[in-house]
Amino acid sequence: MTEALTHTTAATSGDSTAVPAAPVTPEMTAPETAVPLSPQDVEAAVHAIADRSKHAGRRMSKANRAWKDRGLRAIGAALLERKSLILAANAKDVAAGKANGTSAAMLDRLTLTDARITGLVDALENLANLPDPVGNVVRGQTLPNGLRLRQVNVPMGVVAAIYEARPNVTVDIAGLALKSGNAVILRGGTAAAATNEALVHVLRDALESVGLPADSVQTVDQYGREGANALMRARGRVDVLIPRGGRDLIQSVVLNAAVPVIETGEGNVHIFIDESASEEMAVEILLNAKTQRPSVCNTVETLLVHSRSTVLPAVAAALRAAGVRLHTDERIRAALPSSIESTPATDEDWGTEYMDLDLAVGMVDSLDDAVKHIRTWSTGHTEAILTNNLANAERFIAEIDSAAVIVNASTRFTDGGELGLGAEVGISTQKLHARGPMGLTELTTTKWIVQGEGQVRG
């Protein structure tokens, strides 16, 4: 291929730090190695993968938008072309999950379908249509001494991700990394081992087909948990690590990683129905927020209802008809018709991310009480208010300190694709570098460019 890989000149293989590419083989991507390796051997192998990623990342950082977009579209086409292979691999993982007693919520996350693969392809096309974040000028000025300053977005370099039972994340993160000029190392977990193996093959082949480095996408799944541990310790080789999954996985990474981590959080999501909210809107939004896909992190887990609201019976009846199990406080139970079944809520319910058709429901007497409850139990992911009172909406926005605050809409909109980011690598609930859905810009950092004409500091 003769087209230039870089913005200005053709990329060469003359980088003195280049590490020979290693093709991914079925043996390499098995969920566990056939012969157990020592921790030292695993660490050496993961370091070699990271070094190849660093070399691939240097090439990717110089790729122009047209080339990166061609890579995204090649991945999308390959996913459709090899869909039967991917679905067959996924069926093995789902069958194994059922045999192992995996929860319904986790099985839902694990499962790929024709429609979900089409959704992944659509997300890749959306990414291709978005502006390239690399080179974007964040700010700039000319100083009194004549120095010209620019702060520009540049790729992170090597992005690693540890996640569980979410094969869609394999494609989402690879696509975001490609468009933002990064290389990515994946640890997708044993539960989705066969699916991720198939997807990584498809991704690497697609990248090679358009002349981009296959080592932009690599996996350490073949080294199991010890591979994940080695990835967490690869300081200086991995630029940022993003965990995505349940609380136990996220906290394990946050507490044990030596590399920089962007913490994505569990979603103990709240909706507060103010006394002025309409019944029709409340019913429609609660059904969507709880039942559209209950296994994901932007699903509502706690409903707070103002004591003077009149919509509770209709909302509760609609939720029960949809199969939602209600965990209610005493005041809610007293306000509900005896025909609507519920179980008493405990403190554990207020703090639980069910990721299933369960919902904690409590009654409050004011906006202040709702805010106090949310501050006590929220994980800082997403909170929503349903109201026709503009002053209450503005107070809720000002006083709730979560990554996303929503007025009169479903919490399911806290999603990179829904918010126009193309896709997301995760939803950050921390406050450093990135917060909320993490798209292309969040996978870049910045560089200061200072241009002068011989100035020296006095």
Task: Based on the model shown, name its key terms.
15 helices, 7-stranded parallel β-sheet, 4-stranded parallel β-sheet, disordered N terminus, 17% strand, 458 residues, single chain, alpha/beta
If you had to describe this structure to a student in words, what would you say it looks like?
This protein is α/β, with parallel strands linked by helices and 458 residues long. It is built from 15 helices and 16 strands. It has a 7-stranded parallel sheet, with helices on both faces. A 4-stranded parallel sheet has the order 5-4-3-6, sandwiched between helices. The longest helix has 23 residues. The protein is globular, with a radius of gyration of 24 Å. The N terminus is likely disordered.
What order do the helices and strands come in, and which of them pair?
Blueprint: H1 39-61, H2 65-81, H3 83-99, H4 104-110, H5 114-129, E1 137-142, E2 148-155, E3 158-163, H6 167-179, E4 183-187, H7 193-209, E5 217-219, H8 224-232, E6 240-244, H9 247-256, E7 269-273, H10 279-291, E8 300-306, H11 312-321, E9 325-328, H12 330-335, E10 343-344, H13 347-350, E11 358-364, H14 367-377, E12 382-386, H15 390-399, E13 404-407, E14 427-428, E15 436-437, E16 444-451
Parallel strand pairs: 3-4, 3-6, 4-5, 7-8, 7-12, 8-11, 9-10, 9-11, 12-13
Antiparallel strand pairs: 1-2, 2-16, 14-15
Helix pairs in contact: 1-8, 2-5, 2-7, 3-7, 5-6, 6-7, 10-11
